[in-house]
Amino acid sequence: MPSLSPSRRAASRLSGPLLSGRLVAFSATGALGWWLVTAIKGGEHNDDSTVFLLAFSIILVAAKVGGEIFERLNQPPVLGELVCGIVLGNLGVAGIDVFEVLKEAPFLAIAAEVGVILLLFEVGLESDLDELLAAGPSAIVVASVGVAAPIALGFCASWFFMPEDAAWYVHLFVGATLSATSVGITARVLQDLGKMRSPESRVILGAAVVDDILGLIVLAVVLGLVHSADAGSGTGFSFLGILLILVKAVGFLAGSILMGRTVLVPLIAIIQNAKSKSIPVVMAVAYCFVMSALAEMVGLADIVGAFAAGLVVDRAIARHFGEQSPKYRISDSIRPISAVFVPVFFVYMGLQVDLHSFALAEVLVFAAVLAAVAIASKQVCALGVLEKDLNRWAIAVGMIPRGEVGLIFARVGSTVMVAGVPVFSVETFSSVVAMVMLTTLATPPLLKAVFVNGGGAPESRQAPLFPEPGRHRRKPAAATPRGPHSESRDC
Description:
Layout: H1 6-42, H2 48-72, H3 77-89, H4 100-103, H5 106-125, H6 129-134, H7 137-161, H8 168-178, H9 183-193, H10 199-231, H11 239-271, H12 279-297, H13 302-321, H14 330-351, H15 361-378, H16 392-398, H17 403-415, E1 417-418, E2 421-422, H18 426-454
Antiparallel strand pairs: 1-2
Helix pairs in contact: 1-2, 2-3, 2-14, 3-14, 5-13, 5-14, 7-8, 7-10, 7-15, 8-10, 8-17, 9-10, 9-18, 10-11, 10-16, 11-12, 11-13, 12-13, 15-18, 16-18, 17-18
């Protein structure tokens, strides 16, 4: 029998204690988790703060475990966070109903709201109007077509498959949800394929800037129509009403930029003399919350204000300092805060999914139809590519994943009310979440296939417009006169 090498003998001696240590760690973790669960469920002497701390701890740990598992499976961590929420929210099927209280917990809903506001604030920080101009006309046309086609086809699919008593605004909201795009997932796949420097990637990632802006304007318009229906001021489409809401949304974004020039720049000049290193990020987050509240006050979604705040804050800082110094790179400073609150949003979305609804054949059919329409409608983006030598289908497939952006739309649809009834029922919400997951899972293999089989234009040796992906885009120093952004959470 051949003798083992010294390294293998050492490994064999360590394997026993290491395995025992892991078993002890897993057992201790399981016991601690069970204690937390029972404390939440049956603690008569627990006040609200105790329940919040225990529940928040479980949510954070579950989010990180789910994200890590999916990361190791080469899938977006956001799906792991969502799946963990779905599992926790449906343990009642196995007779474990301890997490049912979390579904309606107001403190968890507020934490999730903070998470989604910070997420859109990051999107604004990572978006740049200068990059929009540098991306070229193809990116603008691709994004515009990729928003219009899903709205129309989604409206038709919803109208055909949903019950006859479903209101017109439900179909419109379904179409608006299908218009969303999460390009962070596509960017990560492009990086894995070594295609980040290709012209197709420039179009895809450039279109993301336009898509973010158009998507929020669409959401603002649809939300305004829903509020009008709730107020009883209209029973259908009103072109004048749509025009007024559109003017309000665009005016809010334009006013935010103007406010950044007149208010933020002088404020930044004062902040730079402060000795406390935390003042820049604290003031930025405070401004984000103020803009979110103002957006709600004028009838828009709070995430529109958060996005505008991120867009304005980053532009104001760059204008004042030129290239951002590390002290004033807000995207770096905001990352630890987002790492805590953003996963709560995705777990909370998973908690709202009712697996019982998928026992109904019509819900399964509707989810499959939504996923098919979501994929097919984005293929129209191929018509928006103006250059002849590009791989049109690679660009179209790159616009498929809905990811966190689709979940944000779904969350708004499940919370906005008309006559005391949410626009998205539990069944519709579950179908939309299933669509988001299917489109996110389908994108990597499809994108790899179209790049391998379809070829494309020769890759440029210049630095890409968006060099390395996070959850959203990052700004490169080579493309703009600004410092690079930090890496956000991966999709």
